[in-house]
């Protein structure tokens, strides 16, 4: 691929201190690609062990002195990671800018809350139902809007997110602005009860994240993943080469939505209480920021981004009031210093450095509504 | 239901025109920046918020106890507009310098620019909530701040059962005047030609001796100033504001810009008015709590059938 050559030509020294992280990561990735099977399994085992001992109080004392570390691991960190992996399918893999991702999180959460409290369904049934419902709403949102590109899609999805939130707020059947209380916890697994102790939820979350990561990696390496990459790089070329772009974009939306719904289900099982304000636009923006900050399209990067964005505000609770202020400032600063993210996907990074035209690529990544393609499409 | 429609149609129309004019003014900023940079300037809603506060603080300094009349009122109106336009225009230029220029110089993607915009938007909101508002009006920033009334709510004339008040007329006339001025600037002046050239083809514009940096700065300045005027009209009409005021209004204004055809100044005017009207008419049937849902649904439906908006031409096509 041309991508790799471009990446290697780049001199890391020129790009400031942060690039050392990326450079080290590149070497790690090279090692990983040529690692033996037993070496890979060692890493997997290390990751599992790491995940198991992560909630240890000793770690917690350093990581979050102000609040209960295990709780923080479930929400926000775990939830953000789950959501970011889901959004990465849509934004990072298929290149569709979605600003209303929180809607699917809400749909998953409300399914668990509503069917659990009103009809007394089993928790797992409500989660599965929530995931299905989220997928369906992904298709419902995607079918009419996926002909749009770039910013238009972004703003429509933003609108959708707000529609879902306002609808939840104004619908008395699901509690209106008061929300739903007494959401049932998951039933016991292997004798472990899900009550007030956050630890079981943490392991449930880890299981969900692991599942979603495996799913996402398998997808990325499959035909579907290649089709998404093709659409992301150049939608028209992909269409001309015989990729049914609309179908695949819809699929990306649906799969992203399913993961969002799962996150909502897991969250609601822990939270006991949900209300419309649990799902504001700012959460969509935060998750998108996590994806881009970490390195859109690269799973380890996305997870790192989500971890940092979930964790840093908790770590610096002393600044309680100033957290969002700092968060906003950091976003601006990060984008100025490292617009391709902390651990960028190699292929994407190469793309970003190609650059086109006097205005840079600001405008080259996703064709605007005024490009010839969309106008001809509109004329059809 | 039909009774409601009969009783509320004309008043809703007036209300829709008024709020639509404000949407249209804010939409201009989105549409100009989008036309030139292909960037949704998410923080434009906070530029509008800054405009409302500039007017509010100035108004509080004069502290009128009763509605003004005659020259005093007109003078106050013009003063507030100028102050807000200056504050918002300045803030927009600063925003561009800090949040977008470095990205542009490095050739970052628009996704990065969008994140930067969201970051800047959050930063400005919180800065106002925590620092600026408490300092300016000596009040915890997260509260709503209300403005004294300085334009009397006199009914000038009635159309059917709709009362058209002085403030309604002021908002609409002011918005139209500002629009015409901007239209003139973009179409008749040298700087306007530069803006259109940049929107159409930045590279060619550079070759023809246009300074892109200056053009971008002027674009932000003009767009910000329009948002400032909108902010001062908002203070006169709605009479309160808060650090969060920008979010919903900003999305509506962006919707208006898209509705009219983004990059198209007259489209922004049309989009704003249409959105204001539809949302107020829709509220007759569904109740005002569904206004935002109506606005977004309209957006989706319009984009499905006309992805380039109602007036599907743009700054790019040099018609502005």
Automatic annotation (TrEMBL), chain A:
Residues 353-380 are annotated as: Disordered. GO terms for molecular function: branched-chain amino acid transmembrane transporter activity. This is Amino acid/amide ABC transporter membrane protein 2 (HAAT family). The chain crosses the membrane at residues 41-60, 72-91, 96-115, 121-143, 150-168, 201-219, 250-269, 281-308, 320-337. It comes from the Bacteria. One of its GO terms (cellular component) is plasma membrane. The keyword Ribosomal protein does not apply. Keywords: Cell membrane, Membrane, Transmembrane, Transmembrane helix. PANTHER family: HIGH-AFFINITY BRANCHED-CHAIN AMINO ACID TRANSPORT PROTEIN BRAE, HIGH-AFFINITY BRANCHED-CHAIN AMINO ACID TRANSPORT SYSTEM PERMEASE. Coiled coil: none annotated. It holds the Pfam family BPD_transp_2. It is a multi-pass membrane protein. Signal peptide: none annotated. It is found in: Cell membrane. InterPro entries: ABC_transp_permease, LivM-like.
UniProtKB/TrEMBL annotation, chain B:
The keyword Cell membrane applies. It is found in: Cell membrane. The chain crosses the membrane at residues 12-35, 47-66, 72-99, 111-137, 168-186, 215-236, 242-262, 269-287, 293-312. GO terms for molecular function: L-isoleucine transmembrane transporter activity; L-leucine transmembrane transporter activity; L-phenylalanine transmembrane transporter activity; L-valine transmembrane transporter activity. It comes from the Bacteria. This is Amino acid/amide ABC transporter membrane protein 1 (HAAT family). Pfam families: BPD_transp_2. InterPro entries: ABC_transp_permease (IPR001851), BCAA_transport_permease (IPR052157). PANTHER family: BRANCHED-CHAIN AMINO ACID TRANSPORT SYSTEM PERMEASE PROTEIN LIVH (PTHR11795), HIGH-AFFINITY BRANCHED-CHAIN AMINO ACID TRANSPORT SYSTEM PERMEASE PROTEIN LIVH (PTHR11795:SF371). The keyword Lyase does not apply.
